[in-house]
Design goal:
The protein is of the alpha+beta class. It has a single domain, classed as Roll (Nuclear Transport Factor 2, Chain: A). It has a 6-stranded mixed β-sheet. α2 packs across α3. The longest helix has 14 residues. It is globular, with a radius of gyration of 14 Å.
């Protein structure tokens, strides 16, 4: 794990609240990333994370979900999706990741264009 990159990202995350920009990250979806989610995707090279989240939330069709990625010391990870009431409705084992943070939470909200993926502070 790149400790310096992790520190930089953790220090930057509190600066994101609300969002003025909504960015599509893939031509395969109409869903969007907020400024903070886009920062995570770009700085951690983690567009794959949003692809994984999108695949689950699109299938679940819930209005609001929370996705939590927990990265282990052996570079495996678990992605858990809950219904915002603490009920895990989907999970995925990630065989390998170089994601620099030990944990990240992403909220996804159904909107007119698909889902808006955001940091909890941007809700």
């Amino acid at each position: 794990m790149n400790a310096q990159l992790a520190t930089e990202i953790y220090e930057e995350l509190p600066n994101f609240y609300g969002s003025y920009n909504f960015t599509r990250w893939s031509i395969l979806t109409k869903s969007v990333l907020t400024d903070g989610a886009l920062y995570v995707a770009e700085s951690a090279q983690a567009y794959w994370l949003f692809d994984a989240i999108e695949s689950h939330v699109r299938r679940l069709k819930l209005d609001m979900t929370q996705s939590i990625l927990n990265v282990q010391e052996d570079n495996t990870a678990t992605l858990e999706i809950d219904d915002m009431d603490g009920n895990i409705v989907a999970s995925q084992l990630i065989q390998y990741t170089d994601f620099p943070l030990k944990q990240i939470k992403i909220w996804s909200s159904l909107s007119e264009h698909g889902y808006t993926h955001m940091l909890p502070s941007e809700y």
